[in-house]
Design a protein that fits this description.
198 residues; alpha/beta; eight-stranded mixed sheet; 38% helix; globular
Length: 198
Amino acid sequence: MKEKFLLILFYSASGSVRNLAHAIADGAEEYDLKVKLRTVPKISKDNKSINHDIPDSGEIYCTKEDLINCNGLAIGSPTRFGSMAAPLKYFLDSTGDIWSTNALENKPGIAFTSTGSMHGGQEVTIFNLITFMLHHGMIISGTPYSFTNLNKTKSGGTPYGPSHVENFNSSNELTKDEYEIAKNSGARLAQLIKKINA
């Protein structure tokens, strides 16, 4: 029997989204769920991949097999004018073959993002990511207000998914509230994966 795992797929330019991804992983791993952190290569201005098949450092690139075999999915991207970043969209746009076989149907998922400014399009970007998951028939999980940090945060964190506001602390480092919201989201997603696959 294949080991169950959460796939955390993200693109990060400044490191903020990567930090959110690792916070989500921390939460999922507390529930003894295996986590695979994956990224996507940068692309050139004419939408062609410009990186080698294997990154020089950090997380490895996501494959379609990672998507097919995962038991749950967390997708993250920085905001680009209210939408996801082009490198992630380039990869997600290539998943029509997976969509046609319903490979992601009934798998739980969450979305997360980071912006440079407080009102930089976080919710719209998360909705863009959620829309991808809905088209694949996934079960979407938000961020409930039972996460007490969601009521206290002065920076990132939305009911739609974890987030970070970079100019709040002029850093890609998460605030305590942002970290806890992301970590709790990962823990909740792990619990959902285990319940669905029980």
